Amino acid sequence: MALSAAFYAPSQASRALLFGTRKPNFSRTACFQKTLTVRASTTLENYSKLPVGEKSVAPSKSNSWQWKFKENSINIYYEEHEKEREGPSKNILLIPTISDVSTVEEWRSVASALVQQDGNVNWRATIVDWPGLGYSDRPKMDYTADVMEKFLVDFINAPDGPISGSENDFVVFGGGHAATLTIRAVKRGAVKPKAIAAIAPTWAGPLPIVFGRDSSMETRYGLLRGTLRAPAVGWMMYNMLVSNEKSIESQYRSHVYSNPDNVTPGIVESRYALTKRKGARYAPAAFLTGLLDPVQTREEFLELFADMGRRKIPIIVLSTEGSPKRSKAEMEALWEAEGVSKFVEVPGALLPQEEYPAMVAEELYQFLQESFEVNN
């Protein structure tokens, strides 16, 4: 649950133990090229066809890919969504938001909606779980932003990977940190997507964005990280802070979803099950304490997007109306930022692709049409 830019410990005692003592009134779409256009988004009532939560769509097929990293051979879980039709297809790689309960499930409805469209391009969607998260293996190793970026690069470029053969003919849709890590890899020249969508993009983990990164706090983050990774006390701490249904429900109601009524028992049970998988606490311990942060400052964050403009890679940013204050500020910093070709605000908080999949799918498909189908 630590999807957010805020950190909610379940009790006063645990908070003391660890740390001591502009919301716009309209949705907008803007294209920043020669002119600026603004339009109101379609109302929520027009987006009711796609399922949410436990009604999520089954993939065409699921499989695993072996990622070789140092001494580890890690099973990486992925799903493919496609519609049987004639002609070549283009690939969409959808990457979940990094969190304690990160999962391919958040993208299923959007993936299904995109591949069902009857346009000039046949779209094939692949959703992949990060190593250490979701349904992928969770070995005890040092998870860092560099490690996650290397995984992403290897997965995209692997000759035996699910999007092999696509060469540069693919797009990436990422939530939260996933989008920023992707853009960082593009800036290094390690991957070359045709376009990128950043959904509720973030760059700072829950604790650093709230409490900062001075030397005192970094020391505390290190102590917390070490405690969470420890054999016995680590599970105790993890169960207290993260792996309990009450905490998960509270997080989703407070800032992961914008409408508490959308937080169903099925969603809570599904996410709770993820926190009980073997090795579940290692990657979240790194994320909570900032080790998975792609950059350290807003200036670096903005520079990543600016570089995409110089590379002429179209980027759409989907900001959300109900994000936590600090995360919202980082998203809004991308409004009119260099390199951002389209900025859209949609309902939701930190998981709009799961809470409002039809609206997100509509905006993303329009972006795909504008980027690819106009010239076909």
From TrEMBL:
It comes from the Eukaryota. This is AB hydrolase-1 domain-containing protein. It comes from Pyrus ussuriensis x Pyrus communis. One of its GO terms (cellular component) is chloroplast. PANTHER family: ALPHA/BETA-HYDROLASES SUPERFAMILY PROTEIN, ALPHA_BETA-HYDROLASES SUPERFAMILY PROTEIN.
